[in-house]
Amino acid sequence: MIIGGSASQALAAEVARELDDKLCSVETRKFPDGERYFRIKDEIPEDEPVIVIQSTGYPQDENMMELFFILDILGDMNVTDITLVSPYLGYSRQERRFKEVECISAKAIAKLIQTMGVKRVISINLHEQSICDLYDIPVDNLSAMPAIAAYIRENYSDKKPVILAPDKGAENFAKEIARILNTDYDYLEKVRLSPEKVKTKTKSITVDNRSVIIVDDIISTGGTIVNAIDILKRQGAKAVDVVCVHPVLVNDAILKINAAGANSVTGTNTLKSEVAHISVAKTIANHLKSL
Asked: What strand order describes the sheet that includes 211-219?
């Protein structure tokens, strides 16, 4: 049986269809003071495995609290086989301590989830693979790149675009998509010309008169992407599109990216967003089938 939290009910319904599993009926609402209410309306047998699907992006505190409510209800119902699918796992950007006596938020969340009876966690493109090591239960970090590659193949007229990472850290994403599409990939690197001057350019590929698709895991403020678009335009790219896994896109990020010259901005549905046109339902369902 599958339970979808408020942040992921549409995705939960897609996964349920892919698996031909039952999607539990739930009741959820917000009180005038902002507190959440959640009720599972269907009966769940004690020996029935349950999959909870709930992203914990913005508003993180609200969605995380609702997740804990769901897990607590399942505990009261004596459900012992719980798999948590959190396509975007909030508070995962800090997986280690940078300053003395600061909270490692990813570790704190791991402790809370494990105390709520979860047996396995499934997420998509966690900020760092090392987050998995914070758990004492299995954590599966799935890749959305095959889904993104399929979307590019079906929706872009240029079948051989350059897949570009905005920095070295995202190179593996670009490489994975380029391998699937059998096309070129590259990343932007900073080259120090002098102690005072730094130039950012593509590492090894010329983008002049080529279509470029920038790929990243998370786009938040959009500043990195705007900078990348500006560089690509100055280097002669004929078209630039932007794709990401997690479209956080705070404030006016979409406006800034479009104003910089991007033809389009597209993300997956790990988060609710106006640009979430790529579904990860099959990615999640296929993995659940393999367990």
From this structure: 198-202, 185-192, 162-165, 211-219, 239-247, 265-268, 276-278
